[in-house]
Write a structure and sequence with these properties.
Layout: H1 2-12, H2 26-94, H3 96-159, H4 162-183
């Protein structure tokens, strides 16, 4: 049992190469590495993320403006329809005796078609806004994931060198050999 404890103690205190050393305490190094990676991602990624969100916001605002212009056109058509309705009502007074029921039918059809057109335009505007929001969210998610993955790979590649890799393998082989001697 003492050999196993000695092997762990020897792994913790590796000799330093100049002023450079490796901390093999996994509990101490992972939070530090994660905080460094997250700090780098937040520092470098927030500008890109804010640019993406600003661009998406501008697109959504342009879409909203376009929808409002379409709605303005529909309101203008509604006003024209109302003016036509007033004209039809004046003609109705003239032809009340002959065609009152016909004029009322035309008036209702005109109002219904105008309201249907307005409802369709409002639905189109809401669907467009929802679609653009979902598309913006998906694009931001994809970009953030790509940046996180690239940052993690860069960090791993810059921290792992051949000497460290070989020393880790040798230490693990020695530890397993000591454990095998104890169990035998």
């Amino acid at each position: 049992m003492k050999n196993v404890t000695d092997s762990f103690v020897s792994l913790v205190h590796w000799p330093f190469a100049g002023s450079f050393g490796f901390n093999t305490d996994i509990l101490a190094t992972n939070p530090i590495n994660l905080s460094v990676v997250l700090g780098v991602l937040i520092f470098f990624g927030k500008g890109v993320l804010s640019d993406l969100l600003d661009n998406r916001k501008l697109r959504i605002l342009n879409t909203i403006r376009n929808s409002e212009e379409l709605q303005g056109g529909a309101v203008e058509r509604l006003e024209k329809a109302r003016a036509r309705l007033r004209k039809v009502e004046m003609e109705a007074d003239q032809f009340r005796v002959n065609g009152y029921s016909e004029i009322e039918r035309e008036k209702l059809n005109l109002i219904n078609s105008t309201y249907k057109t307005l409802e369709q335009l409002e639905n189109y505007k809401n669907e467009t806004i929802h679609f653009e929001q979902q598309r913006a969210i998906n694009q931001v998610r994809q970009r953030v994931f790509q940046q996180v993955l690239q940052g993690a790979l860069g960090t791993l590649n810059s921290c792992l060198n051949k000497e460290l890799h070989l020393r880790t393998i040798s230490a693990n082989i020695g530890m397993f050999g000591a454990m095998k001697e104890i169990t035998d």
